[in-house]
Amino acid sequence: MKFAPALELGETMVLLPGPIRKFQVQDGWSYDRHKVLLEEGDRTVGSTRNGADISIEGDVAFQGANRLLSELEMSSALESLRELVNGHVGEDLKLYLFQDELGNCRYFERCSVVKLRCDLSEPELYQYQLTIHAGQPSMQETVV
User: Is the pLDDT assigned to residue 131 strictly greater than 70?
Assistant: First the structure.
């Protein structure tokens, strides 16, 4: 399998433009902390894992194997991404990380887009930042 990040909504899959400069997954836990007065230390109980927050930063130079050379091509790639993330409300969005030609893949499910920031200030190379929350924090795997 190779690293090939993509978003899937229903039957529509969009490869994230690349190269990806930064890809971070942040896990968090909910818990209840108790402190007894006049005693040192505390006690943590009920620790449960929250969903994962995923931050992606990339350049808009490639989409899959296709090189994006013009501002129009870069703009079109970003617009496809914007349209997909804008239309996901109430539907199951998946973030694919690894895929191969046989259909094997690793992905996060129950995702929602928190923020998409596009930087068009450099006409030679557009950039973007995408923040996603995965309600299911464990990465899923499909093996064909």
Answer: yes
Q: Quick one: which of 54, 20, 7 has its CA closest to 127? A: 20
The two structure tokens encoding residue 10: 């229903």
CATH code of the domain occupying 2-9+16-26+51-142? 2.40.30
Q: Is residue 136 predicted with pLDDT exceeding 80?
A: yes
In the chain, what are the domain boundaries? 2-9+16-26+51-142
Q: What sign does the CA torsion over 86, 130, 61, 142 have? A: negative
Count helices and strands in the chain by DSSP H and E runs: 1, 11
Residue 108 near residue 134, CB atoms below 8 Å: yes
How high is the mean pLDDT of the chain?
89
- Alpha carbons within 13 angstroms on the beta-carbon side of residue 14 total 17
The upper half-sphere exposure of residue 35, i.e. CA atoms within 13 Å in the direction of its Cβ, equals 4
Q: Please, are residues 144 and 100 in contact by the beta-carbon 8 Å criterion?
A: no
